[in-house]
Design a protein that fits this description.
The structure holds 2 protein chains of 2 kinds. By secondary structure, chain A is mostly helical. Helix content of chain A is 76%, strand content 0%. Chain B has 2 domains: 156 residues, D-Maltodextrin-Binding Protein, domain 2, CATH 3.40.190.10; 118 residues, D-Maltodextrin-Binding Protein, domain 2 (3-Layer(aba) Sandwich), CATH 3.40.190. Chain B contains 13 helices and 12 strands. In chain B, the strands form 2 sheets. In chain B, strands 1, 2, 3, 4, 5, 6, 7, 8, 9 and 12 form a 10-stranded mixed beta sheet that branches. Chain B has a two-stranded antiparallel ribbon with strand order 10-11. Classes of the chains: A mainly alpha, B alpha/beta.
Amino acid sequence: MFEDIYWEEILNITLLSLRVSGTAVLVGALIGIPIGAVLGFRQFKGKRTLMRFVDITLKSLINTFMGLPPVVVGLVVYLLLTAAGPFGWLGLLYTPTAMIITQLIMVVPIIIGVTMSAVGSVEKSIRERALSLGATETQAAWLVLREARMGVLTSIIVAFGAAISEVGGIMITGGNIRWWTRTLTTAVVVETELGNFTMALTLGTVLLSMAFAINLVLTIVQVKGARR
Amino acid sequence: MIALLILVVAVVGVFAYEQYTRSQKSIIVLATTTSTYDSGLLDYLMPIFQEKYNLEVHIISVGTGQAIETAKRGDADLVLVHSRQLELEFVNSTYGIHRVGVMYNDFLIIGPMEDSAGINGLGNATEAFRRIAEEGAKGNAVFISRADKSGTDMMELSIWKRLGIQPSNKTQAWYIEAGAGMGIVLRMANEKKAYTLTDGATWLSFKNQLTNLKTLVEGDVILLNPYAIILVNPENYPQRNYKGALMLAKWMISEEGQNLIANFKKEGETLFKPIARNFNKAHELGFPDQEKEIEWYDAQSL
């Protein structure tokens, strides 16, 4: 039953998946959390009509981008990175870097959006009380961010889940090259096409258990954090 | 401001890391058709080549149309494809150079065991297609088309063209446009008990999984399926690995490469027959300049 399974290849594929999605989410968090936090804070500020308009437009845009179809992102990144395209000189098409960029564009809006609503939903009174007790603006902001940390963590979980299970975008920009840009999801596609269902199912199981393990760890952190 | 700074540092860091982990070996990108990959030929040949020359070959396995398009955009170093019409367009556009025949096999018409269109044993592929269309219109047969601009798809369309038929999923329910690779289409045909055109190599590789299907028509001269290698013109894309592409092409058409291709078998049957140095056969299969090209490749020193 297991003669068609190549564990060395599965390991290689799994590590690549982790590296690509992990890097995308890590960089995405570094970019998305500060932006999300700033946007979340904005609602405390004044209520001038123009500002509110800009605010609402911006937030709707981010919410739209949270649902970016991965294949469309893949297509756009492909057109940017192809040798005939504007960034062709970088020689990044069909590399793991191209896949990271694709997933990065996908996860940043997710992280911004979830962080934004987490920060935004922290009770206004917390900030006001802090200020009335003599805290500076920065200290009050820090306090709000601390209160919102579980929501921020959720944004990372959601982003990682989206990245690791994504297939359409990285198929286009990575080229699904064996031993180089083949991830768990694209490998499932190939093995299914080749009729190696045992291998495809094994890869699917690895994908699922990996997602479970990572969510488990993050949830434990979340639960512990909530108790504090 | 801080966010921007972090962004820049992070992106630079990722790039540096990626460049660092990138293989130090020279990389050749080969864009090719699904049949050469799905049949296992390239997974059999490439490790031998990589070992010998200490190079790395990255295989983009798509349909012929897309493979050539990829090369035209400068995203590959060479192509291994099978559609004379698209190959000649590629060479005439000056993006591709030194088209040379490598190997061939046959296209086959396969279909359900019960063969409702009654084409079993026909020596004429065009007639077989005509009967499928006729029975299809009556609701007795289904044909699945690759519909992906692959070499196989181009061959299929050329046969319909001989009949003056332009079948389309839109108007004819018996004609299914899958838009997928050969492996998927064979599997679909097996599930739906449908007819399809397939290259011999992919069929042989999957045959024993496809219990509802069998070979019905083979041997018609129009069903010959030659594969060619074409290099990407280095004048258009100087940054591409022209030297690596040349090495790979030279090796594929060398005695060693050709012998390895001839010895690649599934269930005791040869999947691809070499033609690079069999000039008469090459001429017959649409490579009029085969001697000249082989001479050119042999004269290139690396």
